[in-house]
User: Which sequence fits this backbone?
């Protein structure tokens, strides 16, 4: 069986691995010059062997596929694990860095406001019986029509709680609260509930960076992977698919499109897609994350994520578990802010982030170097990760997950564990199993 896979991110690498292991003849074409896609560790701009992740940074303790791969390639997790519920502990507001006690002094009702917010999300989550089929929720249309902004309004959040919840949305979903479907949030929570039960999930960075996993997978595939080759057009007929790249034409029994939907919007699909699929491919929301890393000559900051009302949104230290006197701070900006940062030249972003870091922590250390990556303006990605906007779970969830004849979508956007490396792997496995079953 001949299969063409487009994209050497984790989804395409996993699908290719499983298909070749079952004896299929696979050609994996990747437009870029390296494997990993949105997994991209950066080290060359830093001194002392330090590094930071410009894309995926954390593996959750229930992401078994990822943990197994880390083990296979000898990549160790770092530290004791962070709990998402407690790492966001500082708030930079009104020129002051408030610790958890000071935040509660500033707004004694903040915990009740958070509880009201969570109770609304929990009530909808309870109706998601199968996290892989959120559209079957008994009030699917009603929940999907609402956004996280509606939840914030119903929970009657005060100023500080609203900043935290907006930053949570911009961080977790990379989008503004108004752009995130409540049903999508419930689906994500239901997936975590089913995978981890009642225990609190912890997340880990890894020693040496996640790129090692993609590099290891690509090395195992050897000459199956073809770098610098871009999909340009697709024709589908009853017995197969004709795949055009900027280098050649390939005949295949199946085609796996294992890349973000944004670059697919430029591909010439000569056999027209069904209307519902076309609408989903062209309409699905994508978050905007701009990550900006600056290395400092000394670590002059307290541990933990700091949320800021300022433009840097969130500042934290990716090198917390790396040795050395120097340290890196990261600004993580999503939603409207991620877009706004993307309009600036990289050097300007680094300077702006450095200025916010200095002001937040009163740094006197020297900035040694840095980089900034705006995923929304990278043509082969067009965003950081998918976000189902209001109305999109009911309209797009199942249509994106069904095969279109011999063409199959893979990637984080069609996983149950949407938005994560684990989801990319999951989607690659799903598609490989479906193709092998179809023959
Ligand atoms: C800023 C950021 C932070 C993140 N944080 C985390 C995290 O902490 N934990 C976590 O688990 N996940 C995180 N993620 C998500 C995770 O990185 C992705 O879900 C996952 O890597 C997506 O893999 P993929 O294979 O679906 O797609 P991709 O990695 O995008 O791979 C697709 C590949 O297809 C290629 N391609 C595109 N178009 C074409 C074409 N026409 N022809 C040929 N090739 C093409 C691209 O170059 C790319 O290499 C983060 C992502 C970002 C951007």
Assistant:
């Amino acid at each position: 069986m001949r299969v063409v896979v487009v994209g050497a991110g984790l989804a395409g690498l996993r699908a290719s691995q499983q298909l070749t292991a079952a004896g299929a003849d696979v050609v994996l074409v990747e437009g870029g010059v390296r494997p990993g896609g949105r997994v991209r560790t950066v080290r060359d701009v830093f001194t002392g062997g330090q590094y930071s992740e410009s894309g995926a940074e954390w593996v959750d303790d229930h992401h078994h596929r990822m943990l197994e791969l880390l083990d296979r390639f000898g990549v160790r997790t770092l530290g004791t694990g962070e709990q998402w519920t407690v790492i966001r502990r500082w708030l930079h507001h009104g020129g002051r860095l408030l610790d958890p006690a000071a935040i509660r002094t500033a707004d004694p009702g903040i915990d009740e406001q958070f509880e009201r917010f969570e109770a609304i999300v929990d009530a909808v989550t309870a109706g998601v019986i199968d996290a892989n089929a959120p559209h079957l929720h008994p009030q699917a249309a009603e929940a999907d029509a609402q956004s996280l902004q509606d939840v914030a309004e119903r929970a009657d959040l005060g100023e500080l709680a609203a900043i935290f919840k907006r930053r949570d949305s911009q961080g977790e979903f990379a989008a503004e609260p108004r752009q995130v479907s409540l049903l999508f949030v419930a689906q994500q929570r239901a997936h975590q509930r089913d995978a981890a039960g009642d225990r609190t999930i912890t997340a880990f960075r890894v020693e040496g960076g996640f790129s090692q996993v993609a590099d290891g997978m690509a090395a195992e595939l050897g000459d199956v992977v073809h770098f610098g080759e871009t999909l340009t057009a697709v024709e589908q007929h009853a017995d197969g698919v004709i795949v055009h790249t900027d280098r050649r034409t390939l005949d295949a029994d199946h085609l796996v499109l294992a890349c973000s939907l944004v670059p697919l919007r430029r591909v010439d699909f000569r056999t027209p897609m069904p209307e519902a699929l076309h609408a989903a491919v062209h309409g699905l929301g994508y978050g905007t994350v701009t990550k900006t890393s600056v290395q400092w000559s000394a670590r002059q900051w307290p541990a933990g994520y700091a949320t800021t009302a300022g433009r840097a949104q969130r500042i934290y230290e990716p090198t917390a578990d790396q040795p050395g006197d120097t340290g890196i701070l990261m600004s993580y900006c999503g939603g409207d802010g991620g877009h706004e940062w993307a309009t600036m030249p990289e050097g300007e972003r680094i300077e702006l982030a450095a200025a916010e870091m200095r002001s937040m922590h009163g740094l006197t250390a020297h900035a040694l170097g840095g980089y900034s990556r705006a995923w929304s303006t990278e043509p082969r990605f067009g965003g950081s990760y998918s976000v189902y906007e209001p109305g999109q779970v009911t309209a797009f969830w199942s249509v994106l997950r069904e095969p279109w004849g011999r063409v199959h979508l893979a990637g984080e956007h069609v996983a149950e564990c949407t938005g994560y490396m684990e989801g990319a792997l999951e989607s690659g496995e799903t598609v490989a199993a479906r193709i092998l079953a179809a023959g």
Q: What stands out?
A: The chain is about 40% helix and 20% strand. The chain has a mean pLDDT of 95. The pocket of flavin-adenine dinucleotide is lined by residues 6-12, 29-32, 37-39, 55-58, 230-231, 258-260, 263, 289, 291, 375, 380-381, 384-385, 411-412, 419-424 (CB under 6 Å).
